[in-house]
Amino acid sequence: MRELSETDHAILKASENIVDGIAAMYGEHTEVLLHSLDVSNPSITKIANGHITGRSVGAPITNLALMKLNAGQDISDSYFTKSPDGKTLRSITIVIRNAQQDAIGLLCINSNLDASFRSVIASFLPGQTSQADTSFSPETFARSNDEMMQSSIESVRTQVMADASLSPSKKNREIVIRLNELGIFDLKDSAQIAAKGLDISIHTIYRYLRELKT
């Protein structure tokens, strides 16, 4: 470990969203935390679901985390540990490096294996928290840009066509507006693909886009 630079601290600060994102994905039975490797204060700088081990920001780095750092793997194999109150945890440690490839932090994930199956499944279901989005997103897992654009066009078209507040004459324009908001038209050949998918001319697509810019 060494003294971290301002840039190193900025990298760790930017990584805090990763902690919240993983915790939001896997629920209350998975603890996610970020360790700073600053030699003057090697400690937790961000933690989600700290109730699993009873830790909070400022808690010191663990001896096992240091062992994983020195093991030579940037992503450790999963391993099993015990929380202070005896819960069995399945854990993984990921090394965070700066542009010079110096280790500046550790991202640690600890899942509580003693949580009941019912409780774990409940944490994955929509509507279990006040912030949960209970709607299903139109996300598709495309294998190419063309496939992604085509699926995006179809998803947006389905939404717009179902909107009774829009007159039929305005629906194609609304589809182009929404696709533009998604950034679709920043991609190569997107206008041609959209024109074909909407069964309108590419000149109409460009006209809608020009109108948006003005």
List keywords for this structure.
about 15% strand; five-stranded antiparallel β-sheet; alpha+beta; elongated; single chain; about 210 residues; 2 domains
Helix-strand blueprint:
Elements lengths: L5 H9 L1 H11 L3 E7 L7 E5 L14 H7 L9 E4 L5 E10 L5 E10 L4 H8 L20 H17 L6 H14 L8 H9 L3 H12 L1
Helix pairs in contact: 5-6, 5-7, 6-8, 7-8
Q: What would your notes on this structure say?
A:
The protein has 214 residues and is α+β, with helices and mostly antiparallel strands. The protein folds into two domains: 6-124, PAS domain (Beta-Lactamase, 2-Layer Sandwich); 145-213, no CATH class. Helix content is 41%, strand content 17%. It is built from eight helices and five strands, in the order H-H-E-E-H-E-E-E-H-H-H-H-H. The protein has helices at 6-14, 16-26, 63-69, 117-124, 145-161, 168-181, 190-198, 202-213, and strands at residues 30-36, 44-48, 79-82, 88-97, 103-112. A five-stranded antiparallel beta sheet has the order 2-1-5-4-3, with helices on both faces. A hairpin with a 7-residue loop joins strand 1 (30-36) and strand 2 (44-48). Helix 5 packs across helix 6 (168-181) and helix 5 (145-161) crosses helix 7 (190-198). The longest helix is centred in the C-terminal third of the chain and has 17 residues, at 145-161. The protein is elongated and about 65 Å long. Residues 128-137 have low confidence and may be disordered. It comes from Shewanella violacea (strain JCM 10179 / CIP 106290 / LMG 19151 / DSS12). InterPro entries: DauR-like, DauR-like_HTH, YheO.
